Automatic annotation (TrEMBL):
<keyword id="KW-0413">Isomerase</keyword>
<dbReference type="GO" id="GO:0003755">
    <property type="term" value="F:peptidyl-prolyl cis-trans isomerase activity"/>
</dbReference>
<dbReference type="Pfam" id="PF00254">
    <property type="entry name" value="FKBP_C"/>
</dbReference>
<protein>
    <recommendedName>
        <fullName>peptidylprolyl isomerase</fullName>
        <ecNumber>5.2.1.8</ecNumber>
    </recommendedName>
</protein>
<dbReference type="InterPro" id="IPR044609">
    <property type="entry name" value="FKBP2/11"/>
</dbReference>
<dbReference type="InterPro" id="IPR001179">
    <property type="entry name" value="PPIase_FKBP_dom"/>
</dbReference>
<dbReference type="GO" id="GO:0005783">
    <property type="term" value="C:endoplasmic reticulum"/>
</dbReference>
<feature type="domain" description="PPIase FKBP-type">
    <location>
        <begin position="34"/>
        <end position="123"/>
    </location>
</feature>
<dbReference type="InterPro" id="IPR046357">
    <property type="entry name" value="PPIase_dom_sf"/>
</dbReference>
<keyword id="KW-0697">Rotamase</keyword>
Length: 131
């Protein structure tokens, strides 16, 4: 008699997943739309974990104005509320990344992505109450 083994595959992410991997003890201001950020990141394909880009390899964080549509939607949403020095892992469905078009020959169409991000610098652009 032949026995079949069923291996459960994890379903491709359909929603943005935010995992806070490090939160500094002192967090007085959090990122919101309009703030200027500098972010270190490493991006990997969700399917196989292959790295496709990293600011760490260049030794320079990426400057981003949050809410200005300079980055993919998964980043716009996933960086909200971060503290300077905080680290997160963002698991981003293709609908909040590059969708059916992909990105060049680096990111295939309909790819979910995983980014390890660190908010290196937060320059708040509007007054707000400290936490």
């Amino acid at each position: 008699m032949l026995a079949l083994a069923v291996v459960a595959e994890e379903a491709t992410p359909a929603e943005l997943q935010i995992d806070r991997t490090y939160v500094p003890d002192n967090c007085k201001v959090t990122a919101q739309n309009g703030d200027r950020l500098q972010v270190h990141y490493t991006g990997k394909l969700w399917t196989n974990g292959n790295k496709f880009d990293s600011s760490l390899d260049r030794g320079q964080p990426l400057p981003v104005t949050l809410g200005a549509r300079q980055v993919i939607t998964g980043w716009e949403e996933g960086l909200q509320g971060m503290c300077q020095g905080e680290k997160r892992t963002l698991t981003i469905p293709s609908t909040k990344a590059y969708g059916s078009r992909g990105f060049g020959n680096v990111i295939p169409p309909n790819s979910a992505l995983v980014f390890d991000v660190e908010l290196v610098k937060l320059d708040a652009q509007s007054p707000r109450e400290e936490l």
